[in-house]
Design brief:
Helices cover about 35% and strands about 25% of the residues. With about 400 residues, it is an alpha+beta fold. It has two domains: about 230 residues, FAD/NAD(P)-binding domain (3-Layer(bba) Sandwich); about 120 residues, D-Amino Acid Oxidase, subunit A, domain 2 (D-Amino Acid Oxidase, Chain A, domain 2, 2-Layer Sandwich). The longest helix has 28 residues. It binds adenosine-5-diphosphoribose and P-hydroxybenzoic acid.
């Protein structure tokens, strides 16, 4: 098989790029290791920045998001028994975020690809990129016991943190930067009314908590837990009781509880791989960088990668101009690191760090007091949360 752009990974990054390029007449093939049902069974985050929303519009894939997603003008930070609001709209001069589950967004992208007859190959096993530093790279994979080969002009590694793309770059050609946090988030999804119309990020000495949602009947809650905990250590009752302890009393009293329909623990990690290009292989999204979820940057950090790659490939195919491709890694990383800084800062501000000294704890408390005493500090938080321009 031959195509112009071979994409490894059918997560939001790979699917969105495929959809955008196809709309411009540029051929793509997406190779996804898992089945569609498996990919859509993963519960992921739920806050989209404007840049991502705009790309979904450009991808002609926004109808359900526009109808069912919720526009949020702000969120709360709870601490010391009270709640302070971050007025995103007021602080940024009109910017908001969209609360819409990443799982639903991925479903919309699959549907859009299917409608256009896009080539998305599921259950592609042992995907491998080859000849990446030549003008004729190719991909191989196995499906149903048969070996396949795809020749392409460019390979996009959009196969997430555990994918094969980044790992296929020689170790001396890539540098990895990483911070692993000494805790995880235990998440629960429940068919209950969200406790608050806007998200609540809660700092508490027992640990961080987050009240989020997928819709007005589906809630998503998280609590910080030690890395040594497993899901089996947490009954639904224990989860709700601990969540309530970490929320201001009025919020805890209003919390509607119910059986969990999903419960999982995610470790928190900051990670960046540089550069995001090796010959004609370009990395995008989680394949090149991940953030702790505290700043809601995960998918949004992929948005700018996809935007830059889309425009760079468009310039290449439409006008023969390769400056976008040449500048991709540098441009993408400049924004990626800003997302890293913000996610690290939000995480540091709101979590309990077991190894912290009393000095560290004082600084953390002062950081919070400063935030809510300064419009400029709040403005900086808001500017980053709604997403820096790209
Ligand atoms: N071959 C083919 N596909 C692969 C391989 C492989 N070797 N390894 C992984 N994949 C697939 C995964 O099954 C997954 O569907 O690549 C896809 C990568 O998707 P994501 O991990 O979702 O990464 P990405 O598309 O970059 O999405 C950005 O933002 O909120 C964060 O982590 C969250 O998924 C989110 C990410
Ligand atoms: C979520 O709803 O899953 C969610 C929302 C905001 C975050 C992280 C996760 O910062």
């Amino acid at each position: 098989m031959k195509t112009q752009v071979g994409i490894i990974g059918g997560g939001p990054s790979g699917l969105l790029l495929s959809q955008l390029l196809d709309l411009q007449g540029i051929e793509t093939v997406v190779l996804e290791k898992h089945s569609r049902d498996y990919v859509l069974g993963r519960i992921r985050a739920g806050v989209l920045e404007q840049g991502f929303v705009k790309l979904m519009h450009e991808a002609k894939c926004s109808a359900r998001m526009d109808a069912e997603g919720e526009v949020h003008d702000g969120f709360y930070i709870a601490h010391d028994g009270i709640r302070d609001r971050v007025d995103l709209k007021g602080l940024t001069g009109g910017d908001t975020v969209m609360v819409y589950g990443q799982t639903e967004l991925t479903r919309d992208l699959y549907d859009a690809r299917e409608k256009m007859g896009g080539k998305v190959i599921h259950l592609a096993q042992d995907v491998m990129p080859y000849d990446m530093t030549t003008d004729a790279p190719h991909l191989t994979y196995t499906k149903d016991g048969t070996d396949h080969r795809i020749d392409c002009d460019y390979i996009i590694g959009a196969d997430g943190f555990h994918g094969v793309s980044r790992k296929s770059i020689p170790a001396d050609k890539i540098t990895e930067y990483e911070r692993v946090y000494p805790f995880g988030w235990l998440g629960v999804l429940s068919r209950t009314k969200p406790v608050s119309p806007e998200l609540i990020y809660a700092k508490h000495k027992r640990g961080f908590a987050l009240c989020s949602m997928r819709s007005q009947t589906l809630s998503r809650y998280y609590i910080q837990v030690p890395l040594t905990d497993s899901v089996d250590d947490w009954s639904d009752e224990a989860f709700w009781a601990e969540l309530k302890r970490r929320l201001p009393p009025d919020v805890a009293d209003a919390l509607e509880t119910g059986p969990s329909i999903e419960k999982s623990i995610a470790p928190l990690r900051s990670f960046v791989a540089e550069p995001m290009r090796y010959g004609n292989l370009f990395l995008a999204g989680d394949a090149a960088h991940i953030v702790p979820p505290t700043g809601a940057r995960g998918l949004n950090s992929a948005a700018s990668d996809i935007y830059y790659l889309y425009h760079a490939l468009l310039d290449h195919y439409k006008t023969g101009d390769d400056t976008g491709l040449e500048a991709y890694s540098q441009k993408a990383l400049a924004r990626v690191w800003k997302g890293q800084r913000f996610s690290w800062w939000m995480t540091t501000l709101l979590h309990s760090f077991p190894q912290n000294s009393s000095f560290d704890n004082h600084l953390q408390q002062t950081d919070l007091e400063y935030l809510f005493s300064s419009e400029k500090a709040l403005g900086s938080l808001a500017e980053n949360y709604v997403g820096l321009s790209f």
